[in-house]
Design brief:
Elements lengths: L14 H8 L3 H9 L6 H14 L5 H8 L4 E6 L5 H16 L3 E6 L4 H13 L4 E4 L6 H10 L4 E4 L9 E5 L1 H15 L3 E6 L7 H14 L2 E6 L6 H13 L6 E4 L2 H13 L9 E6 L12 E4 L2 H16 L8 E4 L2 E3 L9
Helix pairs in contact: 1-2, 1-3, 5-12, 6-7, 8-9, 10-11
């Protein structure tokens, strides 16, 4: 015990105890707990370690009343069981947690009614901010409700016109273009493109693939399936596509999940990848680098997307009043063993 330090008689650690243990000021401890001002990572770590060692628990309810804040954020995603969205949620939650915020994850299943219900729940919980993958239909009213309550919002991947909110977007058109272009550059002239429902996949991604096929003059079999962009959709579409004659020598699935389905269909039909069929996916979820063969894909910077959305909101919550910002992140072709020159 440091000289002059007297432990609270109740045996319960106080904010002063934490400050002494971390060798910082009480004001610094308060900033870490309340997130009111920037604290360097080193000082933040010292304070958090001291709080853990002493078993110090700040009174969250009292904090919320004082600051009109709850240190909680909402995340609305279409399908938490999809690897892309679960990876995004992991990055977002980890970033918020390191700054003292808790994340409430809501899976909307692209349902405007379920989305509306979750927005009501988040408003009732008085979340400090919301990260939002809006559904294709019905999101405008829900975003408006959040804005009316002065809840900071970051929209991810899908643009919403007419709202002054921050956005984290990716170059979906370029990614779609690059996927087809990669197969063309390898020498493929019969190319299949599999797209799930456009309620679930950004229109720009399909537009990029269509543009590349048009410019290249290749024989493109582009199929938009009115179904979720999951393993089964990719499998079913690929079975039908690969049974046609002449069949494509390369297939570009507009999500990795569908690409895994294509890989399974190819194996079932006795086609070797990439000798008989080249396959390209989109997302670069962690699974695809461990497939046999590893999947060529258009990578979205999923983890960076989650971190970026969190950082934008943390800046706003800490007093940055510079207004909404839009961050455009690049997609990237990751070439692996599932693509090759056609025989």
């Amino acid at each position: 015990m440091r000289p002059g330090h007297q432990e609270d008689r109740s045996g319960i650690a106080t904010i002063r105890d934490v400050a002494i243990a971390a060798d910082v000021s009480i004001a610094t401890v308060s900033r870490v707990i309340n997130g009111t001002r920037y604290v360097s990572p080193d000082l933040r770590a010292r304070v958090l370690n001291a709080m853990q060692t002493l078993g110090y628990q700040p009174n969250a309810i009292a904090q919320g009343l004082r600051r009109q804040a709850t240190h909680s954020v909402g995340l609305l995603v279409p399908r938490i069981n999809e690897p892309f969205f679960s990876q995004f949620a992991f990055a977002l939650e980890k970033t918020f947690f390191s700054s003292g915020y808790r994340t409430l994850v809501c899976s909307t299943e692209e349902s405007p009614e379920k989305e509306q219900a979750y927005v009501s729940i988040l408003l009732g919980q008085q979340v400090d901010a919301v990260v939002y993958f809006p559904s294709i239909a019905g999101s405008d009213d829900n975003v408006a409700r959040l804005i009316e309550r002065s809840v900071p919002v970051v929209v991810v991947e899908r643009q919403l016109a007419g709202f002054e909110v921050s956005q984290v977007l990716v170059t979906n058109f370029q990614g779609g273009y690059d996927g087809v272009r990669h197969l063309v550059d390898l020498g493929h002239r019969r190319i299949g493109v599999i797209c799930g429902s456009l309620d679930n996949i950004p229109h720009e991604r399909l537009g990029g693939a269509q543009q590349a096929a048009l410019e290249s003059g290749v024989n493109a079999d582009i199929r938009v399936i009115d179904a979720l962009p999951d393993f089964k959709t990719g499998y079913d579409a690929a079975l039908a596509m690969l049974r046609d004659r002449p069949r494509p020598t390369g297939v570009f699935a507009l999500t990795d999940s569908m690409a895994v389905g294509v890989l399974h269909a190819a194996a079932e039909l006795g086609l070797r990848v990439p000798q008989d069929l080249s396959i390209v996916g989109f997302d670069n979820i962690p699974l695809v680098s461990f497939l046999i063969p590893p999947l060529t894909t258009i990578a979205q910077p999923i983890y960076t997307m989650g971190e970026t959305a969190a950082r934008i909101l943390l800046q706003q919550l800490e007093g940055d009043d510079s207004g909404p910002q839009t961050v455009l992140l690049e997609t990237e072709l990751i070439e692996r063993a599932s693509t090759a020159t056609p025989r």
